[in-house]
Amino acid sequence: MPLDADILAAVAARAAEMDLSEASVTHLRREWPGVHFTFCGEDDVPARLSPVLEGQGFNLYLVNNADHCVAFTGDLEIATGIVLATVSED
After folding, report:
1. What is the tens place of the pLDDT at every residue in 22-50?
2. pTM for this one?
3. Cα angle: 21, vertex 25, 31; to 5 degrees
4. How far apart, in whole angstroms, are the C-alpha atoms of residue 44 and residue 42?
5. Is 72 helix (H, G, I), strand (E, B) or coil?
6. What is the phi-psi region of residue 74: left when phi exceeds 0, alpha when psi lies from -120 to 50, beta otherwise?
């Protein structure tokens, strides 16, 4: 499923309603079955990367799996998945 700004906004809205965890990301996978979702903590994402969207308590990053290797991307047109990274308060 190709990603677009509407899907990204809808995922961010749903993520804002949830207590993010592996279980909630599983729910997102059911809502958008063609989108690859990954869940992690913000400290698991390289510091040089900027999120494509910042939410309350989480950041969203894009990934692309071209050539069978998953890599972060800032390009929504080639993105195949979304990384939901929780941001801790400390």
Report:
1. 999 999 999 999 999 999 999 999 999 99
2. 0.91
3. 150
4. 5
5. strand
6. alpha
